[in-house]
Specification:
Blueprint (H helix, E strand, L loop, with lengths): L1 H5 L4 E7 H6 L23 E7 L8 E4 L14 E10 L2 E8 L1
Antiparallel strand pairs: 1-2, 2-3, 4-5
């Protein structure tokens, strides 16, 4: 994580139809109500915002459905430190982190 922060990669936003966004592999793991979407269909609008880290959507380090706001570049974040890691359900882990 800190390596990608130091690379100072651009953080970009693109709006696109939901079905196209899903085809890009963009992650969309949580519903508007806070529940997990693992194994279920979530209700997203027909047009969604996808944030991606990198120069292009196709070669992005990370891409996710999200409403933002976000930093313009990863270098704005600062050093990332994991303070806790735990199991939240079978096959799902959660990390808690701080910027130091």
């Amino acid at each position: 994580m800190n390596e990608k922060i130091r690379e100072n990669l651009p953080v970009n936003r693109i709006e696109m139809p939901k079905d196209e966004a899903e085809k890009t592999g963009a992650l969309h793991l949580f519903s508007a109500g806070g529940g997990s979407s693992f194994g279920g269909k979530e209700k997203y609008p027909d047009m969604v915002s996808v944030y991606y880290i990198g120069k292009s959507l196709e070669d992005a380090y990370s891409k996710e459905f999200c409403g933002g706001p976000h930093v313009a570049r990863t270098g704005e974040i600062g050093e990332f430190k994991i303070v806790k890691e735990e199991s939240v359900s079978a096959g799902t882990r959660r990390i808690r982190a701080v910027i130091v």
